[in-house]
Write a structure and sequence with these properties.
218 residues, mainly alpha, two-stranded antiparallel ribbon, 7 helices
Amino acid sequence: MAKRKWRRHVSPIKIWHRYQRMSRKRKRYLQLYLGALIVVLGLLIGLKTIATNNQADANNDESLSSEEQFIETIGQFAHENYQQSHVLPSVVTAQAILESDFGRSELSANYHNLFGRKAYGNEPSVSLATNEVVNGETITISGRFKVYDDDQAAIIDHGKLMTEGVNWDPQLYHGVVGERRYKKATKALQQAGYATDPNYDDKLNDLIETYDLQRFDP
């Protein structure tokens, strides 16, 4: 008996002709089968879309929750330290957000350095790459940064910097200390040269307003 040859390709016209030759009952079964198949495929696509959206929402909620938790923790630490530093907690919290990216930067996540504080002398330190603005251009350099035991220690040290200044100018940040208006405090930070970013004060102001950081101020 001769073997039947397998036809690898069947033209749409031949498929249509075969369909036309089918009995009404077989056509009905085929239509029901194809309809059910389309419904199942639609459900699978819909379920996959819902799962993808739910995962995206979960990731967004987790990120938002993490940022809110960071703000609440740092805001409370800054509020508690206000009696010693007299620096507005809203400004301190905004600096921590901006400098550490909500505690996600390597420097803050691994070494609790929330404010990009440089290390000098024998202070515990780590060398990391950092971006600086020089003559209007952003460049990457390697710097020695302080290492802290926890975030609260970083906030306390930040307060000491504000009140005690630096060796060459103990009064450097006195325009920040005791200032009750956050925009004047951020402007004083900018003028004192705390950061090389020329828009540093504006970015702090935006963060304070966006996240209602004034709620931590006394």
